[in-house]
Amino acid sequence: MVKKTNKFLMHMLGMSIVLGMSSISSAEIVMNNAASQQSSLSWSSEDAEQLLNGDVSSSIDEPSPQGSTKVTTSVRSSNGVVAQSAPSKTVRIVDTNQYAGQPSVNARAALVMDGQTGEVLYSKNSNTALPIASITKLMTAVVISDARLNMSEKITLQQADFSCSGCKSSSSTLRAGDSMNRAEALLFALMKSENPAASALARTFPGGRSAFISAMNAKARSLGMNSTHYMESTGLHPGNVASARDLGILVNTASQYGLIRQFSTTPSYDFNLGYRVLKSNNTNALVRNGGWNINISKTGFINEAGRCVVMHTTLNNRPAVVVLLGADSSAARTSDATRLMNWASQLPKRI
């Protein structure tokens, strides 16, 4: 039985070979391609470009009044050039504390922000820099998308992709020697939060890991993420830190990238590595359950960071950013997010 998410994802990527085989089961495709030593779901640079065409370029604008950050976003064409005729969208992040009956949350820090106006609807320790764990991978995806690299280029995982100096250990279903293209590595990193995939994306970046980390920090500075610092691309290093406020900026920016929207919210996916198939599910239960209109999602966990999640969603017909850092457990994180989204859904929408 073909999974709805796979069909939709392949449709979005314009994979004509799949679109012409809607009556063939996913298992049959996997078996047929395994026999021919090819991946059943293979991304090409042309496929990924169809989503990258919707990406944007973001930059920090003139200094804003104290207590706010002004971020300008403009539509970018497929060759990376800003289209002069494209309207720009300015989001001014303004802290407010006017809404009564705000829910309490378990997380150490939290933010709910109107994604269109920048109004902060809910804030708890939102200016405090904290470890962000795998929320890091959202910036990894932004840097990869901005670089316009060949998404069909094959990447073979190396043993060095499974560890790094100062990083925490982690489990993985991937192995050294596994091979995938760059788009699949990005999907692994965003949907399943696979650390070796995120590490390999940095390693294969022009200039290597050091150039990639420099690009991550430069992007953060350009967006006005002044409390943010990245040590590596996976989130396993506790030195990767940001405030909930900074992550609100990042999530709002990432929501403009079609590739990141699609990959981060894929509920499940079967990765065919040629000699084995990895059946994988999204790390965010709210995405898997499908009860909310979530456009961007990324979870994270290391001991220093606790359970974290960032999302871009739609609440009461308006775009909203939700950030939670340092919840005690996955259940507490999900409960916090659900409580905040239910609360924000009841707020009046300003015109």
From TrEMBL:
Q: Which positions carry the signal peptide feature in this UniProt record?
A: 1-27
InterPro entries linked to this entry? Beta-lactam/transpept-like, Peptidase_S11, Peptidase_S11_N
Peptidase S11 D-alanyl-D-alanine carboxypeptidase A N-terminal domain boundaries: 99-328
Q: Where does substrate bind?
A: 298
For molecular function, the Gene Ontology terms on record are: serine-type D-Ala-D-Ala carboxypeptidase activity
Tell me which UniProt keywords the record has, alphabetically.
Answer: Cell shape, Cell wall biogenesis/degradation, Hydrolase, Peptidoglycan synthesis, Signal
Q: Where are the transmembrane segments?
A: none
Q: Which Pfam families match?
A: Peptidase_S11
| Residue ranges of the region described as Disordered | 55-81
Active site feature: 134 (acyl-ester intermediate), 137 (proton acceptor), 193
BP GO terms, sorted:
cell wall organization; peptidoglycan biosynthetic process; proteolysis; regulation of cell shape
Q: Which domain of life is it from?
A: Bacteria
The UniProt entry's sequence similarity note says: Belongs to the peptidase S11 family.
Entry protein name: D-alanyl-D-alanine endopeptidase
Q: Which organism is it from?
A: Acinetobacter gandensis
Lineage, top ranks? Bacteria, Pseudomonadati, Pseudomonadota, Gammaproteobacteria, Moraxellales
